[in-house]
């Protein structure tokens, strides 16, 4: 089932509320009632809260539950940028509401704690009570709130602690949710993410209370501000909450996710799947078409309407010898180079993906100026006087009009030389697109059939089982086909993400056969998040 943005935001809201209710709730119970002994018990509850929240909402939204993880996913995993802000707002709102619920439950204990310890809300030292909502550095309950305690954990240490802790958290999340990671325990991934968080909290909490999550900090901190803790809540008795608990986790998550992608993920070996030689005839069909028909349609759809990759624009002035030479040179280039089309200088070329080349005949008739006036970004400018002077063909007293063809030939060579690298990249991209066309057709056939499936109900007939097994097998076989195509660097990221999507489809099909709704929904959503923007980009 396709989940709307509203449904995903509600899942993030509810998941973060669960996280804060149990996680911040155990902090309330520990500080105000002495309900637990030792940091590990608090950390273990936090880990369990994360696991429960992921199990509850992961199939709908992916269970980011943390703005830092959302930003890291958008940076490295193709998560749609347009969803980043709605996700973050939902996460902060969930954390805020979870804290309000806790205050409704613990306000009596909080007041008693303040009276017993002579704490005045908003006064210096009141972070001893406010710590049950937002976080402080150092941990007031462990290190204290004196000047000596402040010296033990300066601002720089707090920033590093939050950044490093969140970097580890993000890198392990990336590792555990990596489709190529055969060691990842798929159904138990939320539990291992929870264990990861608990271990990090045990190390970082004495220094900063281990926020690691801007929503977990800001939502409860806002509640304490509204309850009268004032500047002790925002910006905190030492200031710096924005840097320590908001910016540092975001930076750490992006760094940790990027480090995993660069250092570990690229070293993962793609599983090799042998294609059975005696597959039934229907396995060679794509969305109801024979393979050859599908390949041809895919080529037509992928290549689409003929569009020039390079648009060359000569200057438009008439009667000027330099512009006449420039126009003739452009005609020669277009005649010998199929990737090139000609436009008039006064016409804004359509297709911003094209490489725009301006050929200027002189300072009085500049094609580049005409293009810039209509908002077109010029990629290359070739100056006819400069190119011909370098070739030694322009000298005082020489009649240029008598040598128009010779000079145009020389200028055309200069234009081709300036485009040599661009044209090489275009030809490589075309080769890759042509090889990708039939692969994408097969992918579309698999994807459309998988999306048409209803959620599993546990009752699977042999016919249905065979059909879904076929989809899973075709997904894995197509994964191998992707590895046979060596993409240019600009296509390497979508190439990898399509492979990840295919593995997620295979895992989703296996979950469907087993009647595992969570496995089905979670892997299908992962594939959907990667596929939608990539199909638009590749086409």
Task: Considering the chains and any ligands shown, give keywords for the structure.
single chain; 539 residues; 3 domains; four-stranded parallel β-sheet; two-stranded antiparallel ribbon
CATH architecture of the largest domain: Up-down Bundle
Average pLDDT level: 81
N→C terminal distance? 25 Å
CATH class of the largest domain: Mainly Alpha
**Looking at this structure, what is the CATH superfamily of the largest domain?**
Glycerol uptake facilitator protein
CATH topology label of the largest domain: Glycerol uptake facilitator protein
Helix count equals 19
| Number of separate strands | 6
Arrangement of strands in the largest sheet:
4-3-5-6
Looking at how many chains there are and whether they match, the oligomeric state comes to: single chain
Unreliable spans are: 270-307
Gyration radius, in Å: 31 Å
Q: What is the count of distinct domains? A: 3
Q: Order of SSEs, N→C?
A: HHHHHHHHHHEEHEHEEHEHHHHHH
Sheet having the most strands: 4 strands, parallel
The rough form would be described as: flat
Strand content: under 5%
Query: How helix-rich are the residues, as a percent range?
Result: 55-70%
């Amino acid at each position: 089932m396709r989940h709307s943005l509203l449904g995903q935001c509600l899942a993030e809201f509810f998941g973060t509320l669960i996280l804060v209710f149990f996680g911040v709730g155990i902090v309330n119970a520990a500080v105000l009632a002495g309900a637990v002994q030792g940091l590990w018990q608090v950390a273990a509850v936090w880990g369990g809260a994360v696991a429960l929240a992921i199990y509850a909402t992961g199939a709908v939204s992916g269970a980011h539950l943390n703005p830092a993880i959302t930003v890291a996913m958008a940076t490295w995993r193709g998560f749609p940028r347009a969803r980043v802000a709605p996700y973050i707002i939902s996460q902060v709102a969930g954390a805020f509401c979870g804290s309000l619920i806790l205050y409704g439950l613990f306000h009596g204990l909080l007041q008693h704690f303040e009276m017993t310890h002579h704490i005045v809300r908003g006064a210096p030292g009141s972070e001893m009570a406010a710590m049950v909502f937002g976080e402080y550095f150092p941990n007031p309950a462990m290190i204290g709130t004196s000047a000596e305690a402040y010296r033990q954990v300066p601002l720089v240490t707090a920033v590093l602690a939050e950044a490093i802790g969140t970097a580890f958290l993000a890198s392990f999340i990336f590792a555990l949710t990596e489709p190529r990671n055969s060691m990842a325990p798929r159904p138990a991934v939320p539990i291992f993410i929870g264990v990861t968080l608990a271990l990090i909290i045990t190390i970082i909490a004495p220094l900063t209370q281990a926020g690691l999550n801007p929503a977990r900090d800001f939502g409860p901190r806002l509640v304490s501000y509204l309850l009268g803790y004032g500047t002790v809540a925002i910006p905190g008795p030492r200031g710096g909450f924005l840097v320590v608990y908001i910016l540092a986790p975001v930076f750490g998550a992006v760094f940790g996710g990027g480090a995993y992608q660069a250092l570990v993920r690229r070293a993962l070996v793609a599983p090799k799947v042998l294609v059975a030689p005696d597959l039934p005839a229907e396995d060679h069909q794509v969305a109801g078409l024979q393979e050859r028909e599908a390949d041809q349609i895919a080529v037509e759809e992928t290549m689409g309407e003929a569009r020039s990759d390079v648009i060359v624009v000569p200057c438009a002035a008439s009667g000027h010898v330099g512009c006449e030479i420039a126009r003739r040179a452009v005609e020669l280039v277009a005649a010998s180079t199929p990737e090139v089309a000609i436009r008039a200088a006064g016409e804004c070329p359509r297709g911003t993906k094209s490489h725009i080349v301006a050929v200027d005949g002189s300072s009085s008739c500049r094609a580049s100026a005409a293009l810039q006036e209509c908002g077109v970004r010029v990629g290359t400018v070739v100056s006819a006087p400069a190119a011909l002077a370098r070739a030694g063909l322009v000298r005082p007293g020489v009649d240029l009009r008598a040598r128009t063809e010779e000079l145009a030939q020389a200028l055309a060579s200069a234009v081709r030389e300036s485009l040599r690298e661009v044209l090489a990249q275009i030809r490589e991209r075309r080769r890759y697109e042509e090889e990708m066309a039939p692969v994408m057709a097969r992918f579309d056939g698999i994807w459309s059939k998988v999306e048409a499936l209803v959620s599993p109900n546990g009752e699977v007939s042999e016919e249905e089982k065979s059909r879904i097994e076929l989809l899973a097998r075709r997904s894995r076989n197509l994964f191998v086909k992707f590895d046979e195509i060596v993409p240019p660097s600009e296509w390497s990221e979508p190439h990898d993400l399509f492979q990840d999507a295919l593995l997620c489809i295979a895992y989703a099909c296996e979950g469907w056969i087993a009647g595992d709704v969570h496995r089905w929904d979670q892997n299908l959503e992962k594939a959907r998040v990667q596929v939608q923007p990539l199909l638009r980009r590749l086409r």
